[in-house]
Amino acid sequence: MQNFGKNVTRCNIMGPFSIYTSLFYRTNLRDPKERTLSETFDLQLIRSCIDGDRASQKAIYDRLAPRMYPICIRYIGDRVQAEDVLQDGFVTLFGKMKDFKGEGSFEGWARRIFVTTALMALRKKDVLKMSDELDTARGMKAETVTQVQNIGYKELMKLIMTLPPGFRTVFNLYSIEGYSHKEISEMLGISETTSRTQLSRARTWLQNRIKNL
After folding, report:
1. In this structure, are residues 161 and 73 in contact, taking their beta carbons and an 8 Å threshold?
2. Which of 73, 213, 77, 205 is nearest to 151 (CA)?
3. Which of 39, 52, 171, 200 is the most exposed place for a label (fewest CB within 10 A)?
4. Which domains does the chain have, with CATH numbers?
5. CA distance 12 to 21
6. How many CB atoms lie within 10 A of CB 96?
7. 146 phi, psi to nearest 5 deg
8. Is 65 in contact with 110 (CB distance < 8 Å)?
């Protein structure tokens, strides 16, 4: 996983979608003091969860669910199915709680679990096929920066949900989560070239949808 600094650099080289990625990262820009207190609080809860304290499990659920559910939606593209993925993610999270070493952000560690859970759900439904989507996207042309700047966060979220599964998955992993094409290729069992092509087609797909709003 790449650090936040590298993601900021990526925002600057994404072209028309730099403003898009900035919108998604806005919620992560918290005060450093708040972040430190938050991580200390997490460690206290984690110890209690490992000991089987239900109140601590509920506290972590209540805190993480509003943050992880939108992530599940972005990958799955359906709110009802995303709820199932969210629940599966928490089952895995609580089962692996003892593996968290207290290094780095607990929320970041948890986020990777929910992303992985979403990818597993997509694999089970065999919706990560790439060829048909590439054919669908051929002929699309990228539009201007202005069109992207004129759309809000909620509208972008809705558009992401309309992306074909393959496009949506690679776009989320690269542009939002910060994975490299090499990492994505290993996660999805595709080539790095396919990952790059999917990302390019996803951007073009979104830009064309924005044009028609």
Report:
1. yes
2. 213
3. 52
4. 31-124 (1.10.1740.10), 131-211 (1.10.10)
5. 10
6. 12
7. -55, -40
8. no
What percent of the chain shows pLDDT beyond 90?
Answer: 34
- pLDDT tens digits for 125-179? 776 665 444 444 444 454 444 455 556 777 777 888 888 888 899 999 998 888 9
pLDDT digits (tens, 9 = 90+) for 20-62: 443 333 333 233 433 444 444 567 888 898 898 999 999 999 9
Contact between residue 187 and residue 112 where contact means Cβ atoms under 8 Å apart? no
Given a contact cutoff of 8 angstroms between Cβ atoms, the answer to whether 67 and 16 are in contact is no
Please return the burial class of 173, using the count of CB atoms within 10 Å of its CB with bins 0-12, 13-18 and 19+: buried
Secondary structure in 3-state letters for 21-57: HHHHHHHHCCCHHHHHHHHHHHHHHHHHHHCCCHHHH
Q: In this structure, is the dihedral angle defined by the CA atoms of residues 139, 144, 145 and 151, taken in order, positive or negative?
A: negative
Residue 3: how many other CB atoms lie within 10 Å = 9
What Cα–Cα distance (Å) separates residue 106 from each residue in 25, 65, 98, 99, 177? 17, 14, 12, 11, 15
The region, left, alpha or beta by phi > 0 then psi within -120 to 50, assigned to residue 77 is left
Whole-number average pLDDT of the chain: 75
Task: Check residues 135 and 184 and name the one with the higher pLDDT.
Answer: 184
Quote the pLDDT of residue 81: 93
